[in-house]
Amino acid sequence: MNSPVVSALLPVVFLIAIGFIAVRAGLIRVEANKDLSNLVFSVLTPALLFRTMSTVHVEQLNFRPLLMYFAAVLLLFMGVFVGKGRDHRAAVLALACTFSNTVMIGIPLISLAYGQAGMVTLLTLVSVHLLVMLTITTVVLEMASARQARLAGQGGQQHMALTVLLALKGGLIHPVPMPIIAGLLFAQTGLVLPEVVDRPLQLLGSAFGPVALVLVGAMLTQVQIGTHLKAALGISLLKNLALPLLVALLGWGLGMAGPTLNVMIVTAALPMGANVFLFAQRYEVAQELVTASLAVSTLLGLLTISLVMALVGWLG
Questions:
Q1: What pLDDT digit, counting tens, does each position of 117-175 carry?
Q2: Phi and psi (nearest 5°) for 272?
């Protein structure tokens, strides 16, 4: 129980189990899952994103390791997106293979394993992780919507430039990018949120992780994991092992080494974040597969993170 991997992952497993048991016991109705999803996506998520980004000062960020990390993420994201058909389902599965649980699992794990120096590196990444990952995914999803509309003959005469602009507009006027952008703009003013505003946002943001994971457990009652086990295992292996391998190879290729690169590699090896599940529900695609993959990725993480950390320690 003293292992940082076990200490970080077990609370996540327990919260998912609580949601599963609550539905089985009749404490949460299956019909309420959609309402819970709307609560998380439209209320808790914006509060968390705005408050997180409201203290981020762009000029203080070290962009070199971030650019390396997101270059690896983008390579895998686009590979999965193109390989799976460039539609809504492909975009959500690409996010599933690249979006790490940097907060609920990453923060306690990196803190226990790498101390304060590691936390500085991780929090620099966390400060822009949601902005980059979720904005890219939202824009890609909106582009996929525009593409599918054109293929269906609903926008055949529409100029491509207008299609792109409409997709970008749809990607920005959205419960995810809007609070991120608003928070970043607020941070650049140098102002501080008043306590009467900051405290409610803090409470709402703190509820995001537990409620989202309980919701994942509730959704598992409707999913036959055995049916999706092979596909979920494939997604989990890409997320837990292929992504950290890409980050490591790219980092070494660029001459990076030491604790900063190690933290980036381990962060890439973290299990899938619950935000992927929310996108699957929002766009009503691959919901069962993403739910199964989230559970498999988290459980598999007990082994894969230990393996990655051991290899990083041996090589570093």
A1: 787 788 778 777 777 887 788 778 777 776 666 666 655 445 555 555 555 555 555 66
A2: -60, 140
E-state strands within the chain: none
CATH 3.40.50.620 fits 4-315, yes or no: no
Strand partners, 272: 100
CB-based contact 229:33 (threshold 8 Å): no
Residue 224: CB atoms within 10 Å:
10
Dihedral over alpha carbons 65, 70, 76, 82 (to 10 degrees): -150
95 closest CA partner among 248, 293, 295: 293
In the DSSP assignment, the letter for residue 70 is H
CA distance 129 to 267: 11
Task: Answer whether 176's CB lies under 8 Å from 47's CB.
Answer: no
Residue 149 and residue 157 in contact, taking contact as beta carbons nearer than 8 Å: no
Question: Per DSSP, what are the bridge partners of residue 170?
Answer: none
Neighbours of 78 (CB within 10 A): 15
In angstroms, the CA 221 to CA 142 distance is 30
Residue pLDDT, tens place only, 257-274 = 888 899 999 999 998 987
The helix/strand count (H/E) of the chain reads as: 14, 0
Q: pLDDT digits over 195-254, tens only?
A: 999 999 999 988 887 887 888 788 778 777 888 999 999 999 999 999 999 999 999 999
